[in-house]
Amino acid sequence: MAEQADAIIVGAGLAGLVAACELADAGKRVIIVEQEGANSLGGQAFWSLGGLFFVDSPEQRRLRIKDSRELALQDWLGSAQFDGPQDAWPRKVAEAYIDFAAGEMRPWLHSLGMRWFPVVGWAERGGAMAHGHGNSVPRFHITWGTGPGVIEPFEKRVLEYEKAGRITLKFRHRVSRIVKSKGAAAGVAGEVLEPSKVQRGQKSGRDVVGDFEFRAGAVIVASGGIGGNFDLVRKNWPADRLGPAPKNMVAGVPHHVDGRMIDITKKAGAALINTDRMWHYTEGVKNWDPIWPEHGIRILPGPSSMWFDALGERLEAPCMPGFDTMSTLKRILSTGHEYSWFVLTQKIIKKEFALSGSEQNPDFTSKKWAEVLKSRRGSGAPPPVEAFKEKGEDFVVRGDLRDLVAGMNQLAGGSLIDHDRLEAQIVARDREIDNPFSKDAQVTAIRGARNYLGDKLIRTAAPHKILDPANGPLIAVRLNILTRKTLGGIHTNLDGQVLNAKGEPVPGLYAAGEASGFGGGGYHGHNALEGTFLGGCIFSGRNAGRHAAR
Where does residue 29 fall: left (phi above 0), alpha (psi -120 to 50 degrees), or beta otherwise? Predict the structure, then answer.
């Protein structure tokens, strides 16, 4: 006889943990099914930097940042560019999330024990029109403890409920079918996989040692996106908007982020929408110490590095570091190549380079101020950045530009970069530094960034000439396309109920987190503002768990 519960959650990531807590708080018995091992509790959120999008937070106000619900909604809608009837629920979820981020989100998470770094980051700055894409103000709040710090309060509660017998964790259980009865979701069935002996994030085995079936009145799919499955990424790639899908990419997420459950949920009656909307980064470097296959790390750049395409042509605004990811992705692919270059100085890398992820920020992850000060106030860049500069295959470090160009061409395997052409573009930019005003959009943006105290203190180097030897050595970084987030997926309403092709709820079936485009089937629309991925998992998981409990 199949094991029974009140609700089954597919996926032990952040959205699944939040939903499970809500159900257990309401007195419901929950089974969490997860295809990876017990050391993967928390899913890919564990590997994140832990950034959360808050509006008008105490941290913002202390830094004299004036933010409001109205400004945040303007930025969100200018970025999302919702453009069809399928976006009705995504837009409603987006508006509700802005209310959440401007209201109870931070106080609620604070009450659970979360804390945040006092300097708010300014991610995805836009660089074009006020009503267009981008954050008008800094909103990226790094959680103390990074991704593990975001997971911690929910993981703790889940494990407490497991001891109390209210939540059952079923690891190495891979769902292959959603069981239905009289048109309603009634459970899940699938295969028990061999015990996993690998570390968190490493590729685990797929040998089957048994099967299972669990029954419940509600099923919540919180299984994540498709970023670890290159074939599925290419299948859904929006070639009409971005150009041909890259043949070569690096993976920003582990291999088990495979998208299997999205199609399985479709077979159970779910409608899928916006499946060609995705969020992949343009600043990926190959990890010199990889954990999962094709492991890539994203550089979180400040605004000063000069950005060149594979042919050696400087990228124009708004394709500047940290400003407009989607426009930059399209611009890079327009060359017929799948990589680009940063050219910078030691002064820039020391102050502006950060690496995304909990494992690349051990100081923040440790929650120890002494470690943060030691790492961020040293003579060089933070140790993880210096390690990539020394050991990463995508980094070229030289004393002069001619040697740098030779190293770039050797790394890329050709002679696409012409020294004289590259030098002319850098010299032109350097001349703009002689005055406190400029016609160069990036130089203007650098000076604008330093008007924000947080950027001036820890994120943006003082304007200086790239080719002045006093600022060296010179550094070039080859940047790869890095897969990451799924912006579309399972169509839901605000309560996380899965909708069918007619827009009607499938009884008993819910979806949350990245599998549902972080809510509604894609609450970001076409473009994201950062800090909204973990927040979307929390918000959609909470909504689905609360409604399913009722």
Answer: beta
